[in-house]
Write a structure and sequence with these properties.
Blueprint: H1 2-20, H2 27-34, H3 38-50, E1 56-59, E2 64-67
């Protein structure tokens, strides 16, 4: 299970990178780049939208998935800043 999860996380980071570059291409092209089926691409995009709250949409003009606002996908655990005061 760990390897499968790790591969999925890698795919999300790759999709994020391509989205920020506006270089995903059409869904079938993105599927080829990721070596997955087009239906898996749709599942990943749906997870990014619903679970990770990423503002992703497909732009027909640029023929690429894009973010509706500037940002970057972040998956992981982040410790509180040391500069933050505890009350």
């Amino acid at each position: 299970m760990g390897k499968l999860f790790s591969k999925m996380i890698d795919k999300f980071y790759r999709i994020d990178q391509l989205i920020r570059m506006k270089a995903t291409g059409q869904p079938h092209e993105l599927a080829q780049r990721l070596r997955v089926s087009p239906s898996t691409v749709y599942e990943y995009i749906d997870i990014m939208k619903r679970v990770l709250s990423a503002p992703v949409r497909y732009c027909h003009t640029s023929r690429s998935y894009v973010y509706e606002e500037e940002g970057q996908l972040f998956l992981g655990f982040k410790k509180p800043s040391l500069n933050k005061q505890v009350t």
